Structures are given as structure tokens and as C-alpha cells.
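Dear colleague,

Following up on yesterday's call, I've attached the two folding results inline so they're easy to grep. Please treat them as preliminary; we haven't cross-checked anything against experimental data yet. The first protein's sequence and C-alpha cells come first.
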Amino acid sequence: MKKVYSLQRYHVHPVQFLGILFISLVLLCAGMTGTAHAQEEALKNLKETGKAFASVARGASPSVVFIKVEKTVEAGPSMRSPFNDEFFRRFFGQPMPGQPQEMPQQKRMIQGQGSGFIISPDGYILTNNHVVGEADKVLVKLLDGREFEAKTIGTDPPTDVAVIKIEAKNLPVLPLGDSDRLEVGEWVLALGNPFGLSHTLTAGIVSALGRSSVGISDYEDYIQTDAAINPGNSGGPLIDLEGKVVGINTAIYSRSGGYMGIGFAIPINMAQNIYNQLIEHGSVTRGYLGITIQDLTPELARSFGLADATGVLIAQVMPDTPAEKAGLKQGDVIVKFNGEPVEGFAPFRNKVALTQPGTKVEITVIRDGKEKTFAVTIEKLPAEEQAAASPPDTLDKLGLTVTTLTKELADQYGYTDEKGVVVTQVDPDSAAARAGFKPGVLITEANRKAIANIKDFKQAVEENGDKPLLLFIKDSRGARYVALDVKE
């Protein structure tokens, strides 16, 4: 039975009911109006954000350049003359005079591409070392279609920064920002030429700051961003919403070779320091203290009687170095550099390296539970230390990224009096991973030949061809030979 409710039952007069109904309708309409207003405001804000991106793109694009590089390489192992083959020697003796011992080496030209940006009206351009470092010819194309052949002014492999120059006047310039003022969550824009698609703009945020131990270069302090970066973006600018450069797009984390949401950029403050030195001297001079340091773990902090794990621990002080002369000792915990807190191994190492030799700095340490401050005069990083600081290199055929063994890495992994290359990354889908290779493995020989650096190792891999590569390695499990298949 259907129930019928009387208005009187609830003690509401019909006029009162109509009033309540009217008020309800007014409130409902107001709510709808409020929702519509909120939507309009949100849409307006989105449009304003889009206009801001468009404004930055218009201002920055003329200063961003498309870089094409050319390099002539050997096509493969030199072709031996059949007259020099062991079979012919056995049956026909030594080659007659005038017969070639080797066939002429075949050569081929390879091409690459990347990005860069103009930072002076007379044609100086910032880019990555891995874009132009080994090129025989560098071509630069501007947004207006003009093309120039560029001269490489200087490169710095340890930071992956390079400076090139084109002969032109009154060029549009990108202003440089202050990467030290960046905060996680800020909008940033990446400009470049991914996959050869000239002057592509992508947007994202600063995902993290101070990324180190990534295994890309020797001196790392990367800005991490989720702005899409792909092959060809390398060397292009990372820009804030004021249109100022805050970083140089350098690398991505990817298992596919393409964008996966994680990109890395060199902070412009670091790059500008390198740029100034390359312009003035054509090379980079780094500061030197003469100590081996390590991050202070919570366990180490407790062992040294410290309340927290802030700072870096001095593991060794080299004789006759700035640190020893100033009175620093093994076991000191460095907590301040020129009055600024020391946050960890990589930031501290970068600060020392970017300090000009001859500069006097104050280093505050905790020794036996007490703070002490020492005046230290930074010296020039010795040539042999600088030469050892080569950036990691990826060998796709092996699925390995390696770097030359430095004293710091030797101390970190316990490889005393050794030479070779240290594995920094392993492709999880590679034969190297299946063979048990992990970061920290030391390779000292390839095909029974001693390996001293990346150059030696790459040469051994190239000469090996597609045969299994015999490696002698060392790690926490000891020393052993490993035959490693290469990727097809």
C-alpha cells in the first residue's frame, strides 16, 4: 500500500514548505553556479599556464640549436693480405718484395645529433661533451635555417660539458638562471631536437636535486626531471618559467632507449664554472685537498660518537698535500666547507673540485667529539689524478657501463695497487647480468691483455668481434676468468 504523507504530519505549513523549497532551489543553483565558477577559474589557470609555456618557447627557441656531428671511424679489423696468410707462407714462402702485407683499412663516416644553446651574441654555445667531444666535424643549425660549421673550444669529459663556437654576430642569447635556487616541484621545460625533431618543447617538474652516483659522469650533481627527454635532447637547455637556463639536458634512465619519466640535467651553476674555464684556458683546472673520503653512515656516526650522520669521513690523508699541511687527520668528520654544511660525498667532492687552486678555505671537522676549524689552501689536482677521472662509458654489446679505476674507487672497493675498469651499471637483460656481473666488479684483463682504462677496454671489445670475450675479473668473491658472450 502506497504511503501518503501529509504536510501537516511534520508540522510544516504549506507556505513554509514553499519557502523551504525556494531556499533549497536557490542554494542548489548557487552550488551549481559555484561549481561552474570553479571550473571557469581552473580553466583560466590552465590557459595562463599554457600561455606561460608558449611565452617561454617563443623567447628561448631562437637560441636553441640543432647540432649534427660527423666522425670517420675504422669499419672493422684491418683486412689482411692473402699473401700474408699462414697457409700461403707454408706453401709459397714469405711474400715477395712489393707485395702488400695488409690490405688498406676500410673507413666509414658515422653521424650523430644533439642540441645546444647560444650563451653569447658572438656565437659561443654550450652543449654536452658526449655530443661533440670526438667529432671530426660539427654542424650547427639555427631556428631561422642558417647553418654553420662550429669549432670546438673545449670539452670536459668528467662533467660532460663542452663549448663550441660559430662565426656569427648579434645572435639571440639564452639568459642563465641560478640552479642553486631550484626546488623540487617547480615547473621546468626541456628544449631540444629529440630524434631529429627540431626545437621540440616538453614540460615537467623538478623531480629531485643533487642526484649523484648515477654512473653518467665523474662529477655528478644532477637535476632530475620528468620533462620528456629523448635521444637528440642531449646538450639542450632545461629552462624555468622565467625563461632562464637552469640545466643542460644530459641523460635519461631507460630500459628501452626512450623516455621513461626520468631525465637528468647538469646544474647550470656547475656548467657555467666549466664554461668560464674552457673559454679562458681551453681546459679545466680542479681543486685538490689530498684526502680519501667516504659517506658517513648511521653506523659509522654512532661509532664516532656523533648524534647524526651529517658530513663526510676522512678515510685517508695523503702525504705532502694541502690537507696534511693544514692538519687534517684520518678519522676527522668534515661537517662544514667555508661555513656551509657538508651533506655527503658527491656534493663535497664537487665543491672542492670547483674551487680554484690557490684559494684559502675553512674546513670544519669533528675530532674526538669537538669541532675544529682549519684553514686550507686548495691546490691543483695533479695531472695523473685528473687523467684517471674519465667518465663512464656504456658498451651495449656487453650490457655493461664501466669507468676507469680511480684511487677513490679503489679505496671504496678495496682494490689496492690495481689497474682496470670498474663496472658501474649492468643491463639486467644482458649476458653480463646472467654471468653475475654487478656494480663494483673490477675488470683487469680482456683476452689475456692487461686493461688500464676505458680506452684499453673498448679497444679490446672492438678487436674481439663477435667471439666470446675472455675477461679476468675481481670482486668480493675473489678473482676469476669469465667468458662473456656479446650481444648480436
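Below is the second protein, in the same order (sequence, then structure):
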Amino acid sequence: MSNQKKLKRNVNEVIKWSREQRNDPTQSWKGLCQSHCRQAYGVPAWSPSAIGAWRRIPSEFKHRGNPEDAPRGAILYYSGGKYGHAAIAAGKSTNTKCLSNDYMSQGEIDYAPRNFKRWGLKYVGWSNWTPYGILDLEI
């Protein structure tokens, strides 16, 4: 049975933590998309790569479709390259942006388009699940 415990952080706290990394980063985020997402969620490491994390998510917590359909605070997952990519869905009035590392400036967190067109990644879905609990997407 899947872990359905709620995480301590809420959506606003996840987005706030990620946005703070834009102005006052705690480290270089070069190549650390999965680390950025899990730290925003406030959970320990649980996969060495974004695509590895996606593969570990139980099927009932995987939501496919278009990246624009993902709710604010969800982790967006992409295949491509050796490690895939993960980013955090952002925006209250728009559903076209996310908070991501490396896309706008290498090693930095910034707002990016959810389609990552320049990178040629394939969107595989979104989730709010971790092995430590799920992020409550309601505010």
C-alpha cells in the first residue's frame, strides 16, 4: 500500500522555498533538479535522478497529460538525457511556468516554460508523492 501521509510543508511553503533559491541560493543547482524538488518539499534524498524518482512513484500517484494541467506545487517529470528532469509547477494565474534549475541560467533556479522546448524533453507526468508522504495541493 502506498504512503499517503501528508508532508509538513504546504504548496505555498514549497513555492516560497523554491523562489527564495532564485534570490538567495543555498548552493549551486547545476544538474540538481531532483535535489531542488525534494528539498523544496522538505524531504530527504530518495532517488539519484528525476527519471528514477518518476519510476518509483506508485501508478495511482502518476498523473499524465500535459504539463499545463499540473496543479501549482506538483513536481513535473520529463524524460530525456541520462537523468531526465524535474521541476515545480508554479503560478496562481497562469499554468505555463515552473521553477527549474539550469534552463534560464546554469546552476540557478528561475521561472521556466513548462514545455522545456529548447531542451527537447518529453513530459511524462506530474506527481505530489514522495516515499515520505504526499504534498497536499489544496490551500
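For the second protein, one point worth flagging: The CA atoms of residues 99 and 110 lie 5 Å apart.

Best wishes,
A.L.
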